[in-house]
Amino acid sequence: xxxxxxxxxxxIGATIVLYDGNPFYPKFKSNVGYD
Length: 35
What we know:
By secondary structure, this protein is mainly α. It has helices at residues 2-11, 28-31.
């Protein structure tokens, strides 16, 4: 699915940013209410 989005964005001249990882890295559990 992501391949289709990436190719479509390139076709319209958009900039693509791929992020691989956890945006809440240091404290994921505390950010979602778990302790």
